[in-house]
Amino acid sequence: MITDKNTWELEKDYLRRVINEISIQLNNGVNAASNYKKEAIEMQKNMWEDVRCAPTNSFDLEAPAQMWQYQMDLNNQARKYKLSTDKVSRLEKMYESPYFGRVDFIENGEEEAEKIYIGIYTLSTNNNMDILVYDWRAPISSMFYDYEIGECSYDCPAGSIGGKLLLKRQYKIENMNIVYMFDSSLSINDEMLKDILGKSTDNRMKTIVTSIQREQNAVIRNSQNKILIVEGPAGSGKTSIALHRAAYLLYKYRENMKSDNILVFSPNHVFEDYISNVLPELGEENIRRSTFIDFFENMFDSRYRIETMNQQMEYILARNLDKRRLRSIKFKASSQFLNILKRYMQHIEDGMSTKFKNLICKGTLIISADEILRTFKEDYFHFSFAKRLEKLRQRLFYLLEQHEEKRIKELLDNYIKENNLQEEALPEEEKKLAERKAREEIEPLKVDIMQMTYFDIYLLYIDLFRNIENFAKPVDEKESDGFISIANYTIRQLQRNIINYEDVAPIILLKTVLDTVSDTKSVKHVIIDEAQDYTVIHYEIIKKAFEHSNMTILGDLNQSVNGYMNIGSFGAISETFNAQDANSISLTKSYRSSKEIADFCREILNTQNNLEQLNRHGDKPRIIKVDKSNSSRRIAEDIINLKEKGFKLIAVICKTAGQCEELYKSVNSYVDITLISNQNEIYRGGVVVIPSYLAKGLEFDAVLVNSIEDSDYSKEEDRRLLYTVCTRALHELYLYYIENISDLIKNVNERYYTHDILI
Ligand SMILES: Nc1ncnc2c1ncn2[C@@H]1O[C@H](COP(=O)(O)OP(=O)(O)OP(=O)(O)O)[C@@H](O)[C@H]1O
């Protein structure tokens, strides 16, 4: 902490200067915005007046041109208005706390060091000649995050600029006053981080611009790799980094990239809402957010009932699993199935040569099978498989129509000849007869065309399972039986118009490869958060659907909440994409939980890892044995105590939505609590009861795990789910049981928790 009086005076002076400049620009901006608005209203008035006064019946050639001019002027005015209101809102955001860091940098060959103040935006005067505050995303600002005192450099469009960092200072400025400042010779000061993270959280994710760490900065500013894969433990800042990276890209490529060019795939709507504040706080418009299934939703036919990811999770967690379904879920998440799908799609393409046949009508060849195949393969080469079939159908029907017309003419000519008639004397009845005859003759060919060009993705998918052994190449009888059982199960579900969640991605892949994809052209960058919960098939779809986009893929295998459908290894992701395009970065430090909670969570995983932890201390997690009759009251009392301690965000996390509903009913009579049992509900903070899989990605001041009974978390597949649940806690973690503690917890060394037995 800096106490030197002289330094304080100098810093206060600078802050005054900056705030004064912001005030001036703010005033100018507000005036400019109001003038643009007035002028626009005036223009609109003039335009309507001109329209009203224009002579109604005269043919005025100038009117459309004049209207067009008005429209152009109005658009221009609207653009200027938006630019000035954007600037005003930025200045307003800066006003109370204009910067948070400073580096003094002396460039090689220069004599004097430059003071670089860093804030969320740039503030400049004299037509951008003097920069009072640099945007945190500016190239020069990267030194604040990357370097300690000493040699340093930064990259800018002109190349690498080297020099020395003489000073690195951090500020806490509130209400236009410096609360404190640090000179940090090392990384961004841990004390400041502890101060940020030690506070009670908001119900939405916050920005971390003031304290981005070096390893995080490397991800945020990475521009070398088309596909960037980021692995990091719970709480290492993956989601935060992803959103800051989006803000960085919008700044760096501001000429070519707008917020709707970036798409983030998030696990559910609760999470989508949770992350919705970060970009607006950074002064950027929100990027597109969607769940995977929502993004591709329009591909599905309304006659099918599609199971959601959460419904499948409930099914898996409910424990009464049908073995066949379980085998089917695992199989459909495997690379073995991806290879089967690839072989099958190739077979569909190749099989067209046998599918087409000559179209012959009463001995007349309309088009040969070879010609149909050539048209399909060569003329429609640029279209997708399904589109080629559609075009081919149109073409064949056209040829059929032509043949029909020719045939009618031929029949009528014969009649005229046989009856020695003039054409005008042809009876109407005879014309109708000829038309009917020609139609009847071509009728079977219409059926042939429909059969040759029929395309139904669901039937194709069913067909795959009817012949799965041809594509699966089973190694032995047992495997073959397994395939047959999965095939029968899948066919039966689809015939009942049900698409299980595990079949959603394979069907989307078929549709993406063989048919059209949703419109993805505008997407230049895709962010995939919670990347561990997608399968190889999801990644194959992403590769195909967004082939021109760059990607940032972030996840943690230890948080694979679905034990049967996940990626399994991050190597599988890079293998999906072109190896030259992909690069992986690992984060090693975790920021969310107190050290005591983080240690406990690490023990649940039962693996050796060298993860670093921010040295923020708190109480040890508490394991609490309760009596069945009073467990809800006990949870309610703990919630009340936690609230009294000042914690605002408190979550009771149950394994399933069903358990949440039950618990909600009993706890709600003692304390005010909100139930979030499906992904469409909005999380507004306060005290919530939420199922395990919906809590992933979120964080709370205190987490109360409703039950660590061995009936809840006993299998190996539950380990990662339990880990994910516990790592949601920042400050306090309570875990309750009634009879027998889960083995996953029993193995945790007793020194990492306290154990209360309340009987
Ligand atoms: N550099 C940082 N400075 C301040 N806070 C940080 C920093 N990095 C991460 N945090 C905080 O740590 C917490 C965890 O961050 P985040 O949710 O982004 O991590 P994550 O890796 O996505 O977590 P998980 O995988 O467990 O969902 C958040 O409160 C975030 O604000």
UniProtKB/TrEMBL annotation:
Protein name: Helicase superfamily 1 UvrD-related protein
GO cellular component: cytosol
Entry superkingdom: Bacteria
PANTHER family to which the protein is assigned, alphabetical: DNA HELICASE IV (PTHR11070:SF17), UVRD / RECB / PCRA DNA HELICASE FAMILY MEMBER (PTHR11070)
Keyword flag Manganese: no
Residues holding ATP: 232-239
An MF annotation (GO) of this entry: 3'-5' DNA helicase activity
